[in-house]
Design goal:
single chain; about 160 residues; alpha+beta
């Protein structure tokens, strides 16, 4: 009977691992199913139908209880990170901030995207003419919403 209990407990443990840690159908889920079914089959085979049915009912009840307990909010609260992500969203650039024809400096390499500083404002921009090295002089060609397209001034 000890082997049957160990098989069923290992099967349920693999199911919990499948639900909490490994998304999708993986070896943990398949292994859990195989071990649980093998434990119940062994109970039917070794001890007869009556004991087998009681083991099956007990396995179903324990499985539902363990999975329900592991999916409770408090369980997830213990496992999840407790950090807040802070960020901002760029707003449309106004004409008085950056406009076509303004010049500035590439803060990072534009390959083809990178950071530029124009009129004291640092924004992400796209190079229209290949790569632009860091600290190169640039000129704003097009401003559409938050998108800035630039070209290299030194050619």
């Amino acid at each position: 009977m000890t082997v049957i209990i160990i098989l069923i407990i290992l099967g349920i443990l693999l199911f919990v691992i499948e639900f909490l840690l490994v998304p999708g159908v993986t070896i943990a889920g398949i292994g859990g199913l195989v071990l649980t079914v093998l434990g119940v089959y062994k109970a039917f085979n070794d001890f007869g139908a009556t004991t087998g049915v009681w083991v099956l009912i007990g396995t179903l009840m324990v499985s539902v209880f363990v999975i329900a307990m592991s999916l409770r909010a408090r369980t997830w609260n213990r496992l999840m990170l407790k950090t807040n992500v802070k960020g901002t969203v760029d707003h449309d650039i106004t004409e008085d901030q950056i406009k076509a024809g303004d010049s500035g400096t590439a803060m990072t390499r534009l390959a083809p995207m990178g950071k530029v500083e124009v009129n004291g404002i640092v924004r992400e921009a796209k190079s229209l003419e290949g790569y632009i090295d860091e600290h190169s002089a640039i000129e704003v060609v097009v401003v559409e919403g938050t998108r800035i397209s630039v070209k290299n001034l030194k050619k």
